[in-house]
Specification:
Number of strands: 8
Order of helices and strands: EHEHEEHEEHEHEHHHHHH
Strand content: 5-15%
Helix content: 40-55%
CATH topology of the largest domain: Rossmann fold
CATH superfamily of the largest domain: NAD(P)-binding Rossmann-like Domain
CATH architecture of the largest domain: 3-Layer(aba) Sandwich
Shape: elongated
Radius of gyration: 23 Å
């Protein structure tokens, strides 16, 4: 199997490494900028390095997967690339060509980005399961793309090819909407829940299973609209009006945000009677 070096083993890198290791790839090492960062997670079953020096183990790798933050990818690629390397990065936004920054030209380059929000590796988390449930977007040069596809397949995950750099940026916008916008929407729900007297922490923990259940339903659906429930889907105008009266009474500062969720949901059920609640029409 492939010999891999993980350059920048944070949450993403460690989860990828754990899955590659379990999938019979050889992790020849991982690198972090500081010793503290390298030792932040439980001990990994491969050599760990940190600091300014380039580890000699790097030359043993077939693939170097750079998993540092986006703003450091180009500079780190310039430091580590060797002629025998297939160089990958895990950024959803940056194109593969940012890896061509080194006077020592790598063999081939690609971006290989998991559509996943990784958590720290602890006893309670399932890093291998997180990776295997993920889909990877791959973009770049032919040899590196094929190498990345084979690695993703060996880990039991799915992959698709991103055709060009504009598509790559649209793809990254998709990821931000699906993940970060969902977090912002959850914050709105927690804020509303807190107005009932629930602590924000308890509210979040109470909502998490509902959010997970919705995600599970979406994973089985053909279209997002197939998963809709609630008053917009049913056209229950009075319930929506009651929501808005309660919000206006307790937390009027988020009323506009709530009404925007109704507008967004109505796009999935055009013609719903729920529009009347926003228009102020009488039944």
């Amino acid at each position: 199997m492939t010999r891999v070096f993980l350059w920048g083993a944070g949450r993403c890198g460690r989860c990828l490494g754990a899955t590659l290791d379990e999938s019979n790839h050889t992790i020849v090492g991982s690198w972090n900028r500081t010793q503290e960062a390298a030792e932040r997670a439980p001990k990994m079953p491969w050599p760990t390095f940190w600091g300014p020096d380039i580890p000699t183990a790097l030359s043993e790798a077939d693939v170097v997967w750079i998993t540092v933050v986006d703003t450091h990818i180009a500079a780190q690629a310039a430091r580590v690339a060797q002629p025998q390397h297939v160089l990958l990065h895990a950024s959803g936004a940056l194109p593969a060509r940012v890896l061509r920054q080194s006077p020592t030209t790598p063999r081939s380059v690609a971006s290989c980005h998991p559509l996943q929000s990784f958590s720290d590796i602890t006893v309670e988390t399932d890093p291998v399961g997180q990776v295997r449930r993920s889909t990877f977007g791959i973009e770049g040069e032919d040899h590196a793309v094929k190498t990345a596809q084979a690695m993703v397949q060996s880990m039991g995950a799915n992959a698709f090819i991103v055709a060009d750099e504009t598509s790559k940026m649209l793809y990254h916008a998709v990821c931000c909407v699906a993940s970060n916008a969902m977090v912002a929407l959850t914050d709105l729900a927690v804020t509303l829940f807190a107005e009932t007297g629930m602590s924000r922490e308890k509210a979040l923990h109470a909502l998490a299973p509902l959010i997970q259940g919705t995600a599970d339903n979406l994973s089985q659906a053909k279209e997002p609209r197939d998963v809709l429930t609630g008053p917009v889907h049913r056209g229950d105008v009075e319930v929506i009006r009651s929501h808005m009266r309660a919000i206006a009474d307790r937390c009027p500062e988020v009323l506009d945000a709530y009404q925007q969720t109704i507008v967004d949901t109505l796009r999935l059920v055009p013609g719903s009677a729920a529009q009347k609640a926003l228009d102020g029409d009488e039944q």
